[in-house]
Amino acid sequence: MTDNGESEVVAKMAQKAFASSSNYENVRANYSFEAVEFFLRKLGVNWDNHDKAAENQTDRPFIILEVGCGTGKFTRVMLEVLKDKNVRVIASEPLQSMCEQLKLMVPDTEIIQCPAENIPLPDASVDVVIAAQSFHWFTNRAALKEFHRVLTPRGSFGMVWVLLDDTAAIWLKEIKNFLRILDENYNLVFPFMQEWRKVFSDLSQGLFSYPEECIDFKYSRTSSFDHAFKMLSSYSPVAGGSEKDKKDFHDLFNDVTKRHFKDQGIPLETIPFKFYMYWCTKKN
Ligand SMILES: C[S@@+](CC[C@H](N)C(=O)[O-])C[C@H]1O[C@@H](n2cnc3c(N)ncnc32)[C@H](O)[C@@H]1O
Questions:
Q1: How far apart (Å, rounded) are the C-alpha atoms in residues 163 and 183?
Q2: Which residue, judged by its Cα, is nearest atom 12 of ligand 1?
């Protein structure tokens, strides 16, 4: 866990890992419409009647700020769910290369370049803040304080990840165990880790309620040996890690796919994923 809200906000490893925005866009998992729709409703994005905006006594649209939106993988599905609704989406991302790709992918969307720890928006100006596949990069008090500051009094903060479902495929367990060690080495915190509890008991104290969760939505992505290797090695601790980590991952991937697929003449056709969704509300 980092608490680097003062100067260098975007971790060096993130800058290295996300240097190739087009690779990220091509190989990473996508979000399903159903999961995103469910998540937005849990966050109080009520498009049937605009209760939240009414509570805020304004006639402005409901406003969602997405932080760390990368190439807009989540943003695009969210925009599809919210099509023709009176909801304004502001996408934000600190890295220049990601912002450029984002502009290509969601040309009509409002984009601001900023880290989660320093958001150039007024106090109490957004109804929901969302971090999709990104909160592990800014699991720090500075970011949580910023979300609290920009949110309206009854605003919500949501986190979502699409992660490998190692309960659905044994070979993924071995891969996930390896990635988990790297995550821990780099102090990245995910909801399935012990440290997660501390984030919402210590770090967010006085700012947010303890999050509710849903991990019921699943998704399967068509794959191949080549795609699986590219996708798995695009994970930040590998892509942004040392040469040794990259080589160890390469060796592990070859060994695992040889034992589970190639030696048995089985093709690798899909990769199972699970959505990890969390939502909490601002404390006043
Ligand atoms: C794994 S990508 C997720 C992108 C996108 N939201 C998605 O769902 O595919 C993580 C993103 O977090 C961004 N990030 C890293 N550090 C950040 C920070 N301190 N504040 C905001 N975003 C950050 C990275 O630049 C990257 O685009």
A1: 13
A2: 68
The torsion angles phi and psi of 267, rounded to 5 degrees, stand at -80, 155
DSSP 230-265: HHHHTSHHHHTS-HHHHHHHHHHHHHHHHHHTGGGT
Helix, strand and coil content of the chain, in percent to the nearest 5, comes to 40, 20, 40
The span from the CA of 7 to the CA of 263, in Å, is: 51
Residue bearing the CA closest to ligand 1, atom 13: 68
Ligand 1 pocket: which of 26, 129, 137 to mutate (most atoms within 8 A of CB):
137
**Crossing angle (nearest 10°) for helices 243-260 and 225-233:** 150
Protein residue with its CA nearest to atom 27 in ligand 1: 70
Confidence (pTM): 0.91
Q: Is 70 in the pocket of ligand 1 (CB under 6 A)?
A: yes
Structure tokens at 63: 């406003």
Identify the residue whose C-alpha is closest to ligand 1 atom 18: 115
pLDDT for position 2 = 41
For residue 66, the ligand 1 atom closest to its alpha carbon is: 6
User: Measured in angstroms, how far is the CA atom of residue 134 from the centroid of ligand 1?
Assistant: 5
Apex 140 CA angle, 134 and 142, nearest 5:
110
Summarised one tens digit per residue, pLDDT across range 181-232 is: 998 888 899 988 888 888 888 888 899 999 999 999 998 999 999 999 999 9
Q: Is the CB of 72 under 6 A from ligand 1?
A: no
Is the torsion defined by CA of 33, 35, 38, 42 positive or negative? negative
Three-state DSSP state, 42? helix
For the chain, give the number of residues: 284
Angle at 190 between CA 162 and CA 63, to 5 degrees: 65
Smallest CA-to-CA distance from 220 within 40, 35, 75 is with: 35
